[in-house]
Specification:
The protein has 175 residues and is an alpha+beta fold. The protein is built from three helices and eleven strands. 15% of the residues lie in helices and 41% in strands. The protein is globular and about 40 Å long. The N terminus is likely disordered.
């Protein structure tokens, strides 16, 4: 097992415990339910298109896979397979501060295999290391890099982005 940055893991856990599942207003704004209580057909956004989940509007700017290491020549993190670096802009469209929790974000391969973020690698991949762990105030936005460590022979096809660990999420196609 790789060494992990204890402070980052503790902070991520604290943020995850502090995040709610969102209010019914948040879910209605995200389009996660209709007037009859049923679930509408899922819309999948593309790279460059805004997609909403709860209090967040996500725009995936780019996707780059095949990265072997993140960080500097002195400190960094080496991929078990390959790193996929997903640059995403996140805007708080709600009326309260909301924390972006990187561990709530998921990536998928074409066969449906799910991959989680690598929080330690994300610390090295983001020049502003607080991007993925700070609260975003209403109307503000941040841009950061989500990092996924996946096998070398795998290609990611979609992301599932969440405003909290308990939200419904929104899909973004990567290909």
């Amino acid at each position: 097992m790789r060494k992990t940055t204890l402070a980052a893991l503790l902070f991520t856990a604290a943020v995850a415990l502090g995040c709610g599942s969102g209010t019914s207003d948040d879910k209605a704004a995200a389009g996660s339910g209709d007037a009859d209580g049923g679930k509408p057909a899922a819309k999948t956004a593309k790279i460059g298109e805004a997609a909403r989940d709860g209090k967040f509007e996500f725009t995936v700017k780019s996707s780059k896979c095949g990265v072997a290491k993140v960080g500097t020549s002195v400190i960094g993190d080496k991929a078990q397979g390959q790193f996929c670096l997903i640059t995403v802009n996140v805007k708080n469209i709600g009326k309260e501060p909301q924390a972006l929790v990187d561990s709530a974000q998921k990536a998928f391969a074409a066969d449906g295999t799910e991959y989680s973020t690598d929080s330690e690698a994300a610390l090295y991949a983001n020049k502003d290391q607080n991007t993925l762990f700070n609260e975003i105030n209403p109307g503000n936005q941040v841009t950061g890099v989500l990092v996924f460590d996946i096998p070398k022979n795998v290609k990611l096809t979609k992301l599932e982005l969440h405003d909290s660990p308990f939200s419904g999420g929104v899909d973004v196609a990567l290909s």
